[in-house]
Structure formats: C-alpha cells, structure tokens
Amino acid sequence: MSQTADKRVLFYVQHLLGIGHLTRASRIAHALSRRGFDVTVVTGGKPVEGFPGEGVRHVALPPVVSADEGFSKLADINGEPVDDAFKAMRRDRLLSILHDIRPQAILTEAFPFGRRQMRFELLPFLDAARALPERPMIFASIRDILQKRPKPERDVETLDYVEAYFDRVLVHGDPSFVRLEETFPFAERIADKVIYTGLVAPPAPPAPSETFDVVISAGGGAVGRQMLACAVEAAAQVEAKGRWLLITGPNLAEADFQALQQKAPAHLSVTRFRPDFSSLLQAAALSVSQAGYNTLCDILRAGCRSIVVPFTTGGETEQAARADRLDRLGLLTAIPEADLTPARLAEAMRQALAAPPPDRNLLALDLEGADNTATILASLI
Question: Are both 8-199+367-380 and 214-362 of the same fold?
Fold first, then answer.
C-alpha cells in the first residue's frame, strides 16, 4: 500500500461560467489519486458530464453559476438569484462535508486569488478547518496568470486571507514563462509560501480513433459563441483540406448549436463534446480556439499550429496576457476578440496551414503540474 493511502484530501472547486477550473482541478485530483491519496472533490457549479471523473470521490453542492459574463452576481441552476437562505444551506453542507472527511489537506481552487463571491461559505469553512483537532494543511491552487484587479484593495484582501489561512500557494505554472509577481503585487510578501508546480497539462494522450485536419473548439461553450460563428463562416472561405471538426462545448445554448450545424460547410462537422480532445490535437494540423489555460496546455502538449481568440468580455485579462506571451514567442497566432472577423480568421487559417509547425524547443515548459502537485503534497503532509 502506498504511504499516502491514508492521506485524505478535500479539493473545493467552484466553476461559475466555463469548465476550465473544473478541468484543471480534475487533472490534479486524478494525479493525487494515482499517488494513493484518498481524494474528495467538492464541486459547486453546474454538473459537467465526465468531470471530475472516475477514481475520485465527488460531492456536489447545490449548484450556483454566474448570472452574467462579468461574474458580478450569482444565480442558481434555474437562473434565479441566490438568496441568504440558499447561501446558508450551502455553507452548512460544506461544513458537514469537512467534518465527515476530516482531511489532512485542503485545496481551494482559485480562492483567495479568485472566487471572492464564495466567501460566504469559504471563510466559515476555513475557520472550521483551522479549528479541527488535527489541523489540515491548507493550499491555494491557482493558475500562473491572475485576472487583473480593477480595485487595488482586492489584492490587499487576498494577501490578508493568504496570511491568515493558507500554508502554501500552489502556482500551476512554470516560473521561466511567468512568475506570480507579474500579476500579483504582493507576491514577495508570501514568497515563503509559493510553490511552482509546472503547467497542469494532460498526460500524453493515445492516438486518436479518427483524425481531423482542423479542430475548432470553445472550451465549455458558455462563452465563445461569437468566435464559433465566425469560425464557421471562415471555414466556408478556406479551401477545404481534409476533415474539419468544430466542438462547441456542452454549455452552448441549443439554438446556437443548431444554427452552427445548419451553417457549417460540408467539410466541417459540428459536435458538442469530445472526450478525446487532447488526442485529436495530436493529429491536427491546426487548432482554432479561445485561449483558456487548459486548452493552451493541450495545444502545448500536442505541439500543433494554433490560432487563439482570447476571451476579454467583462474586463477579463488572463487569456489575453497568456496568448500575447505565446504569440511573441512564435508558438501561436493570437487575434484580439475585438478585431475578429470571418475574413481575418480565414486569412489566419490559410497562413497557419501553410506554415511549418511551431518549434517546441523555443520554450521547453514544464507540463507535468498535476504529477508535481501530488509529489509536493506527499512531501508536505
């Protein structure tokens, strides 16, 4: 039996709009499980088929979602505003889970660097965790590039929470690419708690069961409707070479999904979800997508040509910052969301398909963040 077999980990994940946070957390949870940890993933968003997946215990809180693309308000799964009674019910459920599991380690995905909307349950949860007879280690699990805060006091608040509650901050990135201090002004104050894990990319996937020359995707599909519609029009303008596939994501509205299917040219197939997405990229000549953390990890693992349209609605900055860095390194082509047109995307597709694949040696990033995280936890708890 593994020496970590009796180590219980509670991983809190709240996805509000897309599925990127849930995807990254699921990869880490599975790496922990493979290492012998007893992992419970507590999710608080809309159910997503296949996540967090087999091999880890999953407890779903009554879901909440973002009521808009700006993450300003919370709603229940029916779109109704979340009231105090609903929040109290979720808080009490989370506290009950904590006392049932009594974990040796707690990971909070994004918080306190994000998900401040969930303080109503997370602060009582963390207070209760610190009060347990056997106090667990508490880890913040965050991506390497943070959303720019419009109010400086939010960064001060984050610093206060890290100092009060967290033993370590797991930064899921490679410091040779970007460091925490570039997007968090108080990084030096918590330098003794910061550990870089490497990027949480998927393991090298098996060969795909079928191949497509171009793969167009939009993550979970909650956002990206404009990019997908533009890609369908662009596909009709590009001379077809082989088979193309458009993956809308499970959260795209049904009416939008039907419209894409009707407008797609003959060489472009449209589907909602492909569990073998990582494998498809291995054989693709070109990927067209947004610039979410997980999608770019898939692209970097595959080493394929790539065009990205970073999501910037509602003041989002993280995707654009990541895409711009990789564009400057020659690893992909980034098109600003505001500049996207079918004609521009079609021309970018033609140029990308005619160019050689990117040189992976330009940036040898650590892509083993999931396994590295398991090693870090095994050494600390």
Answer: yes
Distance (Å, rounded) from C-alpha 154 to C-alpha 327? 30
Alpha-carbon gap, residue 13 to 25, rounded angstroms: 7
Structure tokens at 101: 């599991």
- The strand ranges marked E within the chain are 8-13, 38-43, 57-60, 64-66, 74-76, 105-109, 137-143, 168-172, 194-196, 214-217, 244-247, 268-271, 286-289, 305-308, 333-334
The letter for the amino acid at 226 is Q
pLDDT at 152: 87
Apex 178 CA angle, 326 and 308, nearest 5? 25
- What does CATH list as the number for 214-362? 3.40.50.2000
301 phi, psi to nearest 5 deg: -65, -40
How many other β-carbons are positioned within 10 Å of the β-carbon of residue 96?
A: 11
Amino acid at position 212, single letter: F
What was the pLDDT predicted at 3? 46
User: Domain limits of the chain?
Assistant: 8-199+367-380, 214-362
Short-list 104, 106, 107, CA closest to 134: 104
User: Could you give the CA distance from residue 67 to residue 86 in angstroms, rounded to a whole number?
Assistant: 15
Other Cβ atoms less than 10 A from the Cβ of 336: the count is: 13
Q: Which two tokens stand for residue 195?
A: 């550990």
Q: What is the mean pLDDT of each run of 10 residues along the chain (381 residues)?
A: 68 89 95 96 90 90 82 85 96 98 98 96 98 97 92 94 98 96 97 98 89 93 88 93 92 93 96 92 95 93 94 88 92 94 97 88 84 98 89
The pLDDT value given to residue 220 = 78
Give the pLDDT confidence score for residue 361 in this predicted structure.
Answer: 67
Q: Hey, what CATH topology would domain 8-199+367-380 get?
A: Rossmann fold (3.40.50)
Query: What is the maximum span of the chain, computed from C-alpha positions, in angstroms?
Result: 66
